[in-house]
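quick one, 152 residues, struct below
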Amino acid sequence: MGAQTVAEVVMRGSARGERVWFDPFGLSVTSGTTIRFTNRDPGNGHTATAYHPDNYDRKRRIPELATPWDSDFLLPDEYFEVTLTVPGVYDYYCLPHEMAAMVGRVVVGTPGDVGWDHSTEDDDDVSDQVLAVLPPVDKVIAEGAVRWEDRS
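---
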C-alpha cells in the first residue's frame, strides 16, 4: 500500500478581518488525495462545507457518488481532513463567510477519467460573487493550484 497524499488548503483572513479566503482556492489532485483544511486565520472561525443537500439543503456541487462533508467550525490552528476518491469537481464554502465569497474548488482527476462528474452546472443556488471567484476547471487542472494573489 502506497503513502497517502495530503494536500493542504489554508483558511486565511486579513489582519482587520475585512477579507477571508481559502489558499489555494482552486486545487487539482489525483483520486484518493486527502485534503487538509487548516484554519490559519487568528481572528475567525471557519468551515469547509461541501455544496450538497445534506449540508443546509444546498444544491449539489460535488460528484453525485461523492460523500459530502462539513468540517464544523474550526478555530485558529485546528484542521479537518476529507479524502476525495470520485473523479470530478468539488465546490465548497465557509458557512459564515460564503457571502464574502470564501469558496473553493477541488478538481479530482481530469474530464477523461472514468466516472468523471462535473456537477457544478446548476448555479442558481450561489451568488454571482461566488461564481466570479470559483476558478474555471481547465485553469485549476492546468495550474495545479490557484491562489488568491494569482487571480486574473
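Residues 44 and 58 are 23 Å apart (CA to CA).
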